[in-house]
């Protein structure tokens, strides 16, 4: 389907005669003020021998694009006509070549003379009509064969220098059934020209088949005359008047429309297209026509405004520029010509401030009328004037196109011959998206052409449904504001989480109670190991019990905070267990952090006790000062007997268990207070979902001050597995970490993408013992996935999503090998991952929004920050 229009008048479909007259009077008054000089009375024919001819401004841009990508089929304008009945092939070929003879554009090719492109018009040209006979094929094979041939022939390249820029073929499917293929390069034709071609072809065929001469009158001018005239007229004050308007409209920063894509955008623009149809029902179409008339707007304006609403919501941008074509034939001499007259208008709309749709429609109406009044300047001249920042991956100024077609259906009758549209080639996508709208007798037919290198068909299908939903909503209630229009379609409801469904709150034993039950059943089994040795379950039981006893003896109360001066080593597990067994909450201090930051965190936490583990190293003076007067305890080493009377305080599931601080990347770090329930819930889900158990060995790789540390340490203690701790000083050595994984027989690991890259460094053998790799903490890329596949070919790869405010993983996705972008996935049991738009309502599929985690298994809130807690921890 062409990207060309018929005329601006067709943009005003659906208005009464009085309304149309009023709109055109407004356009006329606008135009009179800006045009410094009226165009000449007529376009003159050029004198004989006036060569070479310049390119029109529109042709010049296509010539430039072809020089960058010679033979790009994106600018082929191919069509297929199904001819049913008795066909006179000689009359058809003669009619075609009579058109070539009548229209110089059909005999034009392009050359460079003294560094400038010029039109070269062949004095004569005969276009053959080759016949491809498919009638001998089995009947069921003819149509598929014709489809394949059509795809190939209509996608073949043109050479603008050599020419010709028109070619035809005739496919015979039966004695009384043919497919006529016509392909013309866009640089010499447009959508209006296609209508001229069809009408003349029918008239000439009818005459020639009857043995009569051509009935067509001589053409008043040729396309070359127009190109020459345009260059001479559009300059000086006339040009400046047009440019002044567009500078005002398109001046300033013009950010590209950044729609979320299904695939990464290639570095250079591609044109591989896909297309999808949709019909707007008659009831909605009728309501849209009434709305247009009430607003003194055209149906084109209403459909465009709704489309810009959709683009704004999907991109998260308020400044939306959409391209739309005009025929560029407002002079009578140009109407019967075949040639490239098309011009594109850039229609810019500001959706800031959440206007109502009715208010937005008035803005679009004014913008459209102003653009029509200043359509004389070709878009190509605007690019030269505005000099937008060039990006080879997308078109300048606008990346989305909207075209309302009012062309009659390609269907007709001749004596003994019925004509209808046949199957065309797959559409090329000159823009990211092009939406065609055709007003039928009752319905509105939509065709979406999309760049198939950016978007996938299911997403585009949903985009059309969302557009239909917006149209239906504004047709019924035009006072709705932009952000109140829902993009959640009925089809999406079945996919997206239901924000109203109840989420049950389940209780679970605390992690230290679960640990103690396992430790008492098999005290001699290995539980944790580091470079210094192995700790059994009994060792951890003994050391944590003694620590809990000392903390309580020092006067520690329930849920009070305890600081742990950490070190990546096995006794860290005993320290955390000991604090929990005392019924307290721990905050881990990572010695790698600047002492000033640690001192500042301690001043906010105000710990009632602090714990040091063996090997943690000297404590900086700032930290010592912040801990002055706070009771100090130390974790005992392994090998001590278990104290049967050591405490293991029973805690409420919602009692504080830990405090962790956010990174502070968006401001001051926030202290997040976590409870027992979310941690136990995650560990239970983790065990059940991935079949974790006593035969698994886990690595401790997470940062010591981050909440994933809880997952690394407590998962093996929950499921009965073993924790292995690498040597901190050697983790960054190329190849060392992978060798350590192999020596320790690690089966389950949790790591960040950065740690995954570290794991893959150096020349190492594949890690065949790894069966589960969970990644989190940062975006996982396809390169990361490929790297992990090579490093751990037998492992299941899972992408985790969570935040400090949402303890451990709240979302998960098993990563498939073919995925280009790794989604966050779905919530774990008892968790809904919602995307909310600006209005706070659920976003539609593909719509930008903010992730909201709906679950009873959240942290308790921010430390000493009730306002921040109320803002971010919203009751469901």
Poorly predicted parts: 1-14, 33-38
CA-CA gap between termini = 49 Å
* DSSP strand content: 15-25%
> Main β-sheet: number of strands, strand sense, barrel status?
6 strands, mixed
User: Count the strands?
Assistant: 33
What is the global morphology? Answer: elongated
- Please bin the fraction of helical residues: 25-40%
Number of helices: 24
Q: Round the mean pLDDT to the nearest integer and report it.
A: 89
**Helix/strand-derived class?**
alpha/beta
Q: Looking across the biggest beta sheet, what order are the strands in?
A: 5-6-7-2-13-12
> Cα-atom Rg, whole angstroms?
36 Å
Keywords:
876 residues, alpha/beta, five-stranded mixed sheet, 24 helices, elongated, disordered N terminus
Structure description:
With 876 residues, the chain is of the alpha/beta class. The protein is 34% helix and 21% strand. A hairpin with a 2-residue loop joins strand 16 and strand 17. The radius of gyration is 36 Å and the shape is elongated.
